[in-house]
């Protein structure tokens, strides 16, 4: 039985002549070349499996949802539950990151006791909620002041043109 199995395996790629007193073989070049090509394709397919997203579980492929939501790994679940990274820094979503970055302010400073042409330096600070509210109020006050100045100057110009027209009539 073992002999038959060996003969069958060898017969794929060799011409076998087995007698009671002798054994000879000759390789089948065409069969060997075809097998080498198939082996090469198998090796390439296995090596590129991750790159071409080959699905190894064909039976499950027929039953599972192709658009199923992804499941998070343990580290991702821990990060979401704690809202912190491994080093303790806060983990942000894009909206919380933008909100946090909105509190970053750069102030250009100059010492009050030096000349006007003295060099300046920048300081980056994170403002808190109260400072943010004060800053927003200050900005709104500045906008209203500018609008009032513009309106007042426009009224003066209209008033001058009316009085000039009244004098010329």
Choose one word for the global shape: rod-shaped
Helix/strand order: HEEHHHHEEH
Q: Roughly what fraction of the amino acids lie in strands? A: 5-15%
Main sheet attributes: strand count, strand direction, barrel closure:
2 strands, antiparallel
- Strands ordered across the widest β-sheet: 1-2
β-strand number: 4
Distance between the termini: 131 Å
Helix-and-strand structural type: alpha+beta
The radius of gyration is 42 Å
What is the helix content?
Answer: 40-55%
Poorly predicted regions are none
The helix count comes to 6
Q: Descriptors for this entry?
A:
about 170 residues; alpha+beta; two-stranded antiparallel sheet; 6 helices; about 55% helix; about 15% strand
Walk me through what this model shows:
The protein is an alpha+beta fold and 169 residues long. A hairpin with a 4-residue loop joins β1 (14-18) and β2 (23-27). The longest helix has 40 residues, at 129-168. 54% of the residues lie in helices and 13% in strands. A two-stranded antiparallel ribbon has the order 1-2. The chain has a two-stranded antiparallel sheet with strand order 3-4. It is rod-shaped and about 125 Å long. The protein contains 6 helices and 4 strands; from the N terminus they run αββααααββα. Among the domains are: 2-63, no CATH class; 70-100, no CATH class. It has helices at residues 2-11, 29-47, 58-63, 74-82, 94-101, 129-168, and strands at residues 14-18, 23-27, 104-109, 121-126. The chain starts with a helix and ends with a helix.
């Amino acid at each position: 039985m073992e002999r038959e199995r060996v003969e069958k395996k060898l017969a794929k790629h060799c011409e076998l002549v087995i007698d009671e007193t002798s054994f000879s073989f000759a390789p089948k070049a065409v069969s060997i070349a075809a097998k080498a090509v198939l082996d090469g394709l198998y090796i390439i397919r296995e090596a590129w499996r991750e790159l071409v997203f080959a699905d190894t579980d064909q039976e499950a492929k027929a039953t599972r949802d192709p658009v199923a939501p992804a499941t998070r790994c343990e580290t991702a679940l821990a990060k979401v539950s704690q809202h912190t990274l491994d080093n303790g820094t806060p983990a942000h979503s894009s909206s919380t990151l933008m909100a946090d970055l909105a509190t970053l302010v750069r102030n250009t400073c100059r010492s009050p006791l030096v000349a006007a042409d003295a060099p300046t330096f920048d300081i980056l600070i994170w403002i808190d909620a109260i400072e943010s509210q004060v800053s927003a109020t200050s900005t709104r006050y500045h906008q209203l002041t500018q609008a009032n100045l513009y309106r007042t100057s426009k009224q003066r110009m209209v008033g001058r043109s009316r009085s000039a027209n009244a004098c010329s009539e």
